[in-house]
Each structure stands twice: as structure tokens, then as C-alpha cells.
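Ops channel
N.P.: pipeline sanity check, posting one input/output pair.
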């Protein structure tokens, strides 16, 4: 039965699946595994996605009726699978307190240049919010200072601030991080956390800035301006404020800031060039900024849904493998071609559907895995990873007892692939198990194939990585079987350009889910292996998160 399989497959079956063997059937372990894998099937995945992405759920906006419908559906599925309540007070739920802020879109961003004022139009040319969670914010002629990439990174001997006093100023940032052509410098082509907009906001708060403006370009953001519009207009969410923040945070289009700088006799390209050098210093632009924001503020609760498969080993059951997939999307928003419901079918009804299928297969496995396995769908990922961040700060298993986080944000809709892309591949000691399992499917595992987008820092696994927990997020493979070279990447690029965070991200019965099923079956086997092995996964020596695990 195992003829022709690799030695790894034999070891995997005997070491992990050996309890399926019986004296009467001998090596029945492969049959046992195949039976479990059949629990992960296309029909079930489609059914989950069709419901979660239905117009009935109104885009699953955070704190909305649609989110409440989604979390109750997910909890009922967890209960039917046989998962125990893993949330608060014997329930499947963890409440996540949040503050919702809805700015008045009539705001106007004004730039004072000598004796003239140039205004930017909300949504069309800039987006801004008031993160201090107050009903009124008034910024009066604050000095605009260009801070380049706004990075302090001692390991690269890089400091864009050079001790400048930026208190009360509005800081103008470039998105991304420096690109010097050196693959060892700031990750080369790959974007590090230093390049993320969240880092820019954190640094502005640290500097005591009054405001932040990030210059948007499609290459530096990794998505078009309409994604900024759909993600940041309307109501935005945050955890209750516990740390300092600027009075204003926002984005501005490259075209608009170029116009404004030209009015002040400043060439934007010269600022770009200066920012690429280590000797860069903050530059006052001789421009003052004014903005008034009227906001409606409300308190609300998002909900994380937690289903627990309790471990069978008296000691290892106190440790957990944690799965995450976010159930929120953007709810009801501005109409696009007459459609106002941002259904979030790929992002992320599909990820939830695959996770629930993996949960069903693991819950039916006999004997139960040694470690506990926690399956969690989280709220407000689209608002800055709020649900996973809250769980990381209020965990049901201490961070030191969480073996690994497996994150499922989207899935493969393109068909079977020769590759599997894993965010975090190359960072932990799970590389070999991943490669071995992929080899059994005659596939290869690849790291992020679009590292310039900084995807490792953009989904819920990052909340776990920041606490030192080894974390992986599973992405769509790009080498699609039966399609010409480059076809898969072209499909992903088209999705980002036309459908990402748009009402058109809807369920399509023409989706080819064969690859999604194959991916989910591999993830099932990897989770089973990690849940049963004695040692917990580790970051590779020298990784950026290693010291957080073992401070």
C-alpha cells in the first residue's frame, strides 16, 4: 500500500497515524488518512462560502447585523463538528470592545503656501481619520515636514529622524522602505514591517506629531487608490485608546501632493531621491496644514469565535495549535456599479470555509491529537487586525503555550497548482515538514512571491508573530496546472486591481476549488504533525521574531 512513497511518508504514517493500524488489517494507515482527507471536500467548502458571502450578511461589517449572523453560523458549525466552546463563560464567543469613528466627509484638507491656500478633496484626493476617538478635531496651520520613509532601524544604521523635534508637526511619509538594490539591506525587494503604514503611524505617535500623511502610489501600497477609499472611508474601528496617537492620520494621492509641492517650488522626485540615502534629514517644506474633522463616535463589540479541540495528552493539552481566519469584511459602503454590499467572498469567507473543513477532519481523527487545537475566526481584521490583536493580548492559552499559528486568509480559486505559497516559509523550523508534505502531492513550497507588498505583516498571523509565536499564513499557489506560465500571477493581479475590497468580491459558482481542497488537506496533515510532536516549532536563529519567543 505504501509502495513508491517516500521514506518520509512511511515515517509520517507510522509516527503520527500509527494508532489507525490494526492487527487484522496491518498497514491500514494510508486508508485511515485518506478517509480523514475526504472530510475536506469541495461541496462543504462551497456551501460555507455561499452562505457567508450572501447578500443576507450585508458584507459582515464589524459590529453589524451581518457580523452577528456570521458568528452565530460559525459557532453552530463548530458545535456540529464537535468542537468545545473556547470563548468566555463557556461560550464560543470572545467579545472585543471597540470604538467606531465615522468622520463627516465634508472635511477639506487645506495647505497654506505663502499667501495662497490649496485644498484637497476628501476621498478623491485624500483620506483622513481622527484616531483620538473624539467628536471634534481641529488642526490649525501645523507645519508640514517630510520625513522620508520615517524609519529608525539600528540594525541597518538608519535613522530618518536624526533627533529632529517633530512635536506638533504634520509628517509626510513615503510608503514602503528604502530600496538600494542590496538584497541584504531592508530585505531587498521584500517589504519589512518598517514599510507598513501601521509602522508609520506608530512612529508619528512616538515623535509627538500632530498628524500623518502617507503618499499613496500603487507600487508602494500594493493596491490602487480605490482600496484606500473603501478601507478608510465611512466608519473605522479601533480598540479603546490606550496609547498616544496623532490627532490625524491619513493618505494623500501622489498626484495631489505633487501639485501642492510644485506650488511651493519643490520637486517631489528630489524628495524621493533624498529619502533613499542614509544621510537624509527631515525637511520642513514651508507649507502649513489645516484640517477640521467632525466625527460620530460609538462604542461597540466585535466578536471572535473560538472552538476548541481539547488535546489527549495530560501535559501537551495545555499547549495549543491555533488556527485563525477573519470573518469580517467591509459591510455596506459606497456603490460601485450600483452594488453597495462588499461581500468578501474570497476575502475571507473562503478562508473560513477551508478552516472549518480542516477542523471537521481533525475533530473526527482518532485518537485525538496530543496538543489542543483552537480554531478561531476573528473580527475587524480589515480595520487593523483588531480581533487577533485583542486575542493576543487576552489569550485563552498563554503565548508561551501556543505552539504555532496557522492563518487562512483567502484560498486558491484557480485550480490545482504545482506550488504552495506560504507567508513565513524560511522563517521557522517547519520548512522541512512543509516541503515533505508538499512533495507527497508532487508540489513545492515557495515563500511570498510578491514580497514587495509586505504581506507577512498584513494579516492576523502577524498579531501572533509579534508576541513571539511561530506563524504561517497560507496563500494561493501561482503555477497552475494546465495553464501557461504567468497565468496564475496575472489572475491574482487582476483580483487586486479590480475586486480586492470591492463589491465584486462575490461568490462565483465557476470557481475551481480543486487547489483549495489540496491546500487544506496539506494543512490538516501539518497541523496533525505539530499537534503530536514533542517539541514546539521554533523561529530560525536570527529571525526578527526569535528574541520575542525567547527574550
Amino acid at each position: 500500500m505504501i509502495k513508491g512513497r517516500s521514506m518520509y511518508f512511511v515515517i509520517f504514517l507510522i509516527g503520527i497515524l500509527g494508532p489507525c493500524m490494526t492487527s487484522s488489517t496491518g498497514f491500514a494507515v494510508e486508508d485511515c488518512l485518506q478517509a480523514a482527507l475526504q472530510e475536506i471536500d469541495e461541496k462543504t467548502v462551497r456551501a460555507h462560502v455561499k452562505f457567508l458571502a450572501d447578500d443576507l450578511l450585508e458584507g459582515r461589517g464589524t459590529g453589524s447585523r451581518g457580523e452577528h449572523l456570521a458568528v452565530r453560523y460559525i459557532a453552530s458549525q463548530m458545535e456540529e463538528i464537535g468542537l468545545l466552546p473556547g470563548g468566555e463563560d463557556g461560550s464560543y464567543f470572545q467579545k472585543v470592545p471597540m470604538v467606531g469613528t465615522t468622520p463627516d466627509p465634508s472635511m477639506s484638507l487645506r495647505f497654506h503656501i505663502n499667501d495662497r491656500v490649496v485644498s484637497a478633496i476628501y476621498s478623491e484626493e485624500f483620506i483622513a481619520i481622527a484616531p483620538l476617538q473624539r467628536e471634534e478635531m481641529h488642526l490649525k496651520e501645523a507645519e508640514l515636514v517630510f520625513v522620508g520613509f520615517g524609519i529608525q532601524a539600528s540594525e541597518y544604521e538608519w535613522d530618518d529622524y536624526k533627533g529632529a523635534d517633530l512635536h506638533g508637526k504634520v509628517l509626510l511619509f513615503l510608503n514602503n522602505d528604502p530600496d538600494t538594490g542590496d538584497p541584504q539591506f531592508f530585505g531587498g525587494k521584500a517589504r519589512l514591517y518598517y514599510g507598513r503604514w501601521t509602522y508609520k503611524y506608530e512612529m508619528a505617535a512616538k515623535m509627538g506629531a500632530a498628524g500623518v500623511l502617507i503618499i499613496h502610489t500603487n507600487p508602494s501600497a500594493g493596491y490602487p487608490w480605490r482600496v484606500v477609499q473603501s478601507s478608510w472611508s465611512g466608519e473605522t474601528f479601533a480598540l479603546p485608546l490606550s496609547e498616544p496617537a496623532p490627532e490625524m492620520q491619513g493618505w494623500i494621492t501622489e498626484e495631489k501632493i505633487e501639485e501642492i509641492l510644485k506650488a511651493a517650488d519643490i520637486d517631489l522626485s528630489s524628495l524621493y531621491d533624498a529619502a533613499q540615502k542614509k544621510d537624509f534629514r527631515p525637511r520642513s517644506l514651508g507649507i502649513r496644514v489645516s484640517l477640521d474633522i467632525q466625527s460620530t463616535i460609538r462604542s461597540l463589540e466585535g466578536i471572535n469565535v473560538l472552538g476548541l479541540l481539547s488535546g489527549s495528552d495530560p501535559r501537551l493539552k495545555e499547549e495549543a495549535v491555533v488556527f485563525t481566519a477573519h470573518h469580517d469584511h467591509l459591510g455596506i459602503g459606497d456603490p460601485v456599479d450600483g452594488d453597495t454590499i462588499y461581500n468578501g467572498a474570497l476575502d475571507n469567507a473562503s478562508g473560513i470555509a477551508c478552516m472549518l473543513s480542516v477542523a471537521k477532519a481533525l475533530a473526527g481523527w482518532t485518537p485525538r491529537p496530543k496538543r489542543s487545537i483552537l480554531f478561531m475566526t476573528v473580527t475587524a481584521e480589515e480595520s487593523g487586525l483588531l480581533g487577533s490583536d485583542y486575542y493576543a493580548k487576552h489569550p485563552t492559552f498563554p503565548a508561551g503555550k501556543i505552539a504555532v499559528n496557522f492563518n487562512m486568509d483567502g484560498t486558491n480559486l484557480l485550480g490545482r497548482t504545482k506550488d504552495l505559497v506560504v507567508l513565513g516559509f524560511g522563517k521557522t523550523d517547519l520548512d522541512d515538514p512543509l516541503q515533505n508534505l508538499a512533495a507527497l502531492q508532487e508540489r513545492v513550497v515557495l515563500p511570498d512571491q510578491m514580497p514587495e507588498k509586505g504581506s507577512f505583516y498584513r494579516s492576523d498571523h502577524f498579531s501572533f508573530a509579534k508576541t513571539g509565536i511561530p506563524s504561517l499564513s497560507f496563500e494561493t499557489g501561482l503555477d497552475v496546472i494546465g495553464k501557461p506560465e504567468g497565468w496564475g500571477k496575472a489572475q491574482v493581479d487582476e483580483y487586486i486591481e479590480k475586486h480586492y475590497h470591492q463589491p465584486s468580491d462575490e461568490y462565483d459558482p465557476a470557481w475551481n476549488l480543486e487547489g483549495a481542497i489540496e491546500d487544506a488537506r496539506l494543512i490538516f496533515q501539518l497541523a496533525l504533525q505539530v499537534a503530536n510532536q514533542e517539541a514546539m516549532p521554533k523561529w530560525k536563529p536570527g529571525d526578527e521574531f526569535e528574541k520575542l519567543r525567547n527574550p
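N.P.: looks fine end to end. The first strand starts at residue 84 and ends at 85.
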